[in-house]
Design a protein that fits this description.
The chain is of the alpha+beta class. It has helices at residues 49-52, 79-95, and strands at residues 21-30, 38-47, 55-60, 63-68. It has a domain at 21-71. Strand 3 and strand 4 (63-68) form a beta hairpin. 14% of the residues are buried.
């Protein structure tokens, strides 16, 4: 049951669907009946308006966590490479 904001640092209480954002995440589960069968289920998480404006809820490394909304992917190029590529693309566009 949703009771508070998924951001551990926030104490906002869940009261209305229209305030904030609901995240539906498919999470892995292990069977409790021996065999070690892996299944999936949908779990629901809520971020209040303030937190939803700057973060998202993700399933990563076997756990649910919050991350900045606009963080670059872990495998993205370093910032200088992106800036160089952007400058090159702008220069190419300016020359036409």
């Amino acid at each position: 049951m949703l009771s508070k904001c998924a951001n551990p640092a926030c104490s906002a209480r869940f009261r209305y669907l229209r305030r904030g954002r609901i995240f539906n995440l498919e999470v892995k589960t292990l069977s409790t009946h021996g065999g070690g069968h892996v299944g999936y289920k949908i779990e629901h998480f809520w971020l209040c308006n303030s937190c939803a404006a700057v973060m998202k809820v993700v399933w990563e490394n076997g756990a649910v966590s919050t991350q900045p909304l606009y963080s670059p992917p872990a495998d993205s190029k370093s910032k200088p490479d992106r800036d160089h590529a952007r400058s090159a693309a702008l220069a190419a566009g300016a020359s036409s």
